[in-house]
Amino acid sequence: MMGIRALGVSLRSQAVLLCKRTKAHSCARRGDIRGVYPPIATPFTRTEEVDLEKLEENVQKYGKIPFRGLVVQGSNGEFPFLTVEERVEVVRRVRQVLPKEKLVMAGSGCESTRATVQMTEQMALAGADTVLVVTPCFYRGRMDSRALIHHYTQVADSSPVPVVLYNVPANTGLDIPVDAVVTLSQHPNIVGLKESGGDVTRIALIVHKTRSEDFQVLAGSAGFLMAAYAVGAVGGVCALANILGQQVCQLEDLCLSGCWGEARELQYRLIEPNTAVTRKFGVAALKQAMEWFGYHGGGCRAPLRPLSEAEAKELRKDFSSNGWLPHSA
Amino acid sequence: MMGIRALGVSLRSQAVLLCKRTKAHSCARRGDIRGVYPPIATPFTRTEEVDLEKLEENVQKYGKIPFRGLVVQGSNGEFPFLTVEERVEVVRRVRQVLPKEKLVMAGSGCESTRATVQMTEQMALAGADTVLVVTPCFYRGRMDSRALIHHYTQVADSSPVPVVLYNVPANTGLDIPVDAVVTLSQHPNIVGLKESGGDVTRIALIVHKTRSEDFQVLAGSAGFLMAAYAVGAVGGVCALANILGQQVCQLEDLCLSGCWGEARELQYRLIEPNTAVTRKFGVAALKQAMEWFGYHGGGCRAPLRPLSEAEAKELRKDFSSNGWLPHSA
Amino acid sequence: MMGIRALGVSLRSQAVLLCKRTKAHSCARRGDIRGVYPPIATPFTRTEEVDLEKLEENVQKYGKIPFRGLVVQGSNGEFPFLTVEERVEVVRRVRQVLPKEKLVMAGSGCESTRATVQMTEQMALAGADTVLVVTPCFYRGRMDSRALIHHYTQVADSSPVPVVLYNVPANTGLDIPVDAVVTLSQHPNIVGLKESGGDVTRIALIVHKTRSEDFQVLAGSAGFLMAAYAVGAVGGVCALANILGQQVCQLEDLCLSGCWGEARELQYRLIEPNTAVTRKFGVAALKQAMEWFGYHGGGCRAPLRPLSEAEAKELRKDFSSNGWLPHSA
Amino acid sequence: MMGIRALGVSLRSQAVLLCKRTKAHSCARRGDIRGVYPPIATPFTRTEEVDLEKLEENVQKYGKIPFRGLVVQGSNGEFPFLTVEERVEVVRRVRQVLPKEKLVMAGSGCESTRATVQMTEQMALAGADTVLVVTPCFYRGRMDSRALIHHYTQVADSSPVPVVLYNVPANTGLDIPVDAVVTLSQHPNIVGLKESGGDVTRIALIVHKTRSEDFQVLAGSAGFLMAAYAVGAVGGVCALANILGQQVCQLEDLCLSGCWGEARELQYRLIEPNTAVTRKFGVAALKQAMEWFGYHGGGCRAPLRPLSEAEAKELRKDFSSNGWLPHSA
């Protein structure tokens, strides 16, 4: 992995950033979620059992990167493939291994409100500091503001920990309407939104219209992290942070310290790798690239398939052409 | 409810139809799924518990309609809102109540292949004659032919009962590619497809390209049931059959007996009620209309909401303007 | 080309059909548009000028096929690439060459209402019997029922000839709402709809809700022609009829005479060739295939490009695998 | 209209900005397009004729705002509704009235390559400094990289003035693929892209991958102008600049001078008004709001309709709730 120096950031600006980061993270009110989070992958054994040992080894490494915390059992954790028990167990183990000062944000969304309420409670018992609740989506034609406000209000009313809304249209095929987000932002136990749709106008509008509330917006992808910071987001849940964690944190620092020129240069180089491990090739690519960067990735549960050789080659190129891997021989 | 006579079908043609129907249903090979199925709703108590008594009462009524069988725990059964145990229990109860000669086609699809394999086995143990396996969809960007062929092959290899593919893009946001359907049609334990997308060209092409296999296509909605029969489908899984069961069976009969003129007249009158209880207002409307027609409907589990007054009024109009309910005072 | 015999239709049924066809086409009221139409292509010279000679030769051949008429300057005529003068001139030439009893249905849609009004008048002067008016679409976000009803009413009010609505979402990105079609069907100078979207439920509903008016629906593609007939359409405007004109007319005959079994067999074999020259490869493929079947096709105007070798090979296979061309050596 | 002071920008920062702006605009190479442009509307008389007098009066006012120039006959100029002659005449008049140092960027895109080539030549003769060429879109299924690269290369080869690519998926239903943009950026006569899609990740990637070329990216909307600047865009073509021109220029200044905090506050207040005059209500709303702010707006050509009363009220609220209009009595 490249050092910070290679990215052209001076030591002095590092010092400034460190200071800002500390400040940013230390004075946090309950439910302050600002910062960078990798939505961690779930390693499996060859027979597709959850591999808790490899999970713990990954978490130990992540613990040394200046992340605000980890998102556990989000989309990149293959949550729809795990049983209720597995989802909870993964969160418990992460909490045990991760340093105390780091947040565990646990994905607890299910299709029904009642299942989400129960899962949320279990996640809190397992040690989650916050829960990330994806929109129900199977009946997307009926998931209007009325339904979503009711759903999230029920969940937040009963949740022992703060709730973060999770909008990810690439997976769910729906967007939480802005008016619903605004209404929900007024709930004392709803503290933010992870917005993965990539529409920065929407992000800005949500920040604008929720600013009188204790409500924070996290970018859902490294591809538009800098733009999101520019318009008022306060962090990011970035799949790419599983692989280039230091760099994503550095991008955060550059944005927080107003070094927009440097931030832009770094942002540019993260776009193609990020797209490759998300929209283009998905979780299988994320896990493949994790292997190249010293983490345990491994295979996905079926029906997700390993990358084809051509896909793996293209994935590698998306990293190497941006200077993150040597060009292959 | 209107009698058959009111629909203008003579007694003689009824006799012919009865004969055809009997023949159609009696000489069935293993895995022959032709016929009409209501995808039954799951009644809940006021506290959103599964109401098995009401379920049984509905099933007893459905048992007297010339359906081929029932689809249990499909999309209209709110399967994503039920636990594994609830899904299985509902199927078990339906099997106990339903006359032996009627098929139970049980929804057993889950997001992961392994969960689908297990659910399929449990459904078979609970008495399902066939399983209906919806496409996994959360990672829809990666659900290409390769992934879907692998998924369904694994499931079919291990399933104790025949497997029916289930394509429902309105819920899943994806279509099983035709080439994948063709490949899968060659599996000895995959016997058909429920196609809910409404693209009749696609239906015709699939019938055409799978005709050398023991493979049958069912229309997934009453809105295009007649057109689907015209191009070679052999039945339908129709939400509207929960309400206008006799009429949907009559439409089947008219198609099978080549009474296309009468079929067309009946088909026309089913479109708006069908759209109302599916695409337009969804399961909540289905359950509301069931109440009007003497079945137990009741509420849905959250996050699905009851219809607003305006919606209920429009729903009623979609039935009354087509002669299925009296015009309201 | 294959003879009718090869398609397995007996002489007797042919005789019946001929009779029906004659009757169907002879007693037509003004504005009766039932029947099959190829939407003819516009041949160009190597320098992309309209090649009127080749156009006329094609039209002479089409004149001998039992089409109801020709659609001139529709989407397959590359109308958006022609100047106003070219569009009118092409229609004039077709009218001169085509036998009198055949209809010329001329595409006269433009983005603005005023341009459409003028073009419609010019088309009538050039000899068009009917005009086919595509939905304006550049400002599709605002093309709601109100705007479309206003547009078509203005055009129909001033048109010297009957107007046919033209819905083609693959090109325009919008659907005329059903309620707008129903309202417009009441206009005395609006006589029908060419529906190319392929949603047979929509076709059936429109037929149902406009049946008290003199209003006819034509299928906009050979892929769902039979299904459209089944639910009440009275003809088709089919790109494939430029190539397999006799066969598309035969499919019409089989549907009109109630030979649904034979119709189905023929319909199956038309789907892949039809998709190839429409959705899959577009006008360039239509023109390429026309060359194989003895018509003048040639190139398209830029920016449409000729097929790549691989595409041409796949196109050929879509015809040969359905028995319309010999398998290549 | 509000003064700059009201927006909280100090005089000193204004001075800095003025300096930057002058420098930015003065040392421009041929084809340097940086800066803010309103895509001006076309006023019509009551009989829908182009109203050149009102056009000129608007242009005179725009001439006093620190725009880089005007986009004439873009989507907001209703170009698809104008004849070739009208399009050219409008550009000629604008050029005559607009101060020499301001650029005229003229929309010259047509569906066919040959028409675009001719229109481009005519626009240059009419005084356009640059042409803005929208993607052809009627045959969008075939507008792949190969077709678009061919199209734009032909146009740029023959154009007397520099060419700007124009990507506006809301109107065209297609995106120029990034690889096509990168290839086209190498053409010596293609100088930039107007990107209206709002995907800031795409904007950043295009800036990144074209940076070795003389190629500039303009944001196509005020909604994401600040974010676009943050990732390397150098200006914007913003419908809202027709109404709040000073404010959009001020947003540019704040971005150029690195006053991101102030920029953000201003950006927030522009989003809802911008959405209202673009995606939500379109050109009719733009023209309505122009009237409120002292410009000639008036009606659109049909089929675009005037706003309903409810729409006009909502439009007004989108301005007033952000402080740009007094709240209505």
Q: What are the secondary-structure elements of chain A, in order, as H or E?
A: HEHEHEHEHEHHEHEHEHHHH
Q: What structural class do helix, strand and pairing data of chain A support?
A: alpha/beta
Low-confidence runs of chain A: 1-28
**Oligomeric organization of the protein chains:** homotetramer
- What amount of the residues of chain A lies in strands? 5-15%
So, the CATH homologous superfamily of chain A? Aldolase class I
The CATH topology of chain A turns out to be TIM Barrel
Helix content of chain A: 40-55%
What is the overall number of helices of chain A?
13
- Strand line-up of the largest beta sheet of chain A: 1-8-7-6-5-4-3-2
Question: Any idea what the radius of gyration of chain A is?
Answer: 19 Å
The largest contact between protein chains, plus residue counts on each side, is: A-B, 38 and 38 residues
CATH architecture term of chain A: Alpha-Beta Barrel
CATH class of chain A: Alpha Beta
Count the E strands of chain A: 8
First-residue to last-residue Cα separation of chain A: 18 Å
Outline of chain A: globular
Largest sheet geometry of chain A: 8 strands, parallel
Mean pLDDT of chain A: 92
Domain count of chain A, please report it. Answer: 1
Textual characterization of the structure:
Four copies of one chain form a homotetramer. Chain A is an alpha/beta fold and 329 residues long. Chain A has a single domain, classed as TIM Barrel, CATH 3.20.20.70. The first copy, chain A, is built from 13 helices and eight strands. The radius of gyration of chain A is 19 Å and the shape is globular. At the A-B interface, helix 4, helix 5 and helix 6 of A face helix 4, helix 5 and helix 6 of B.
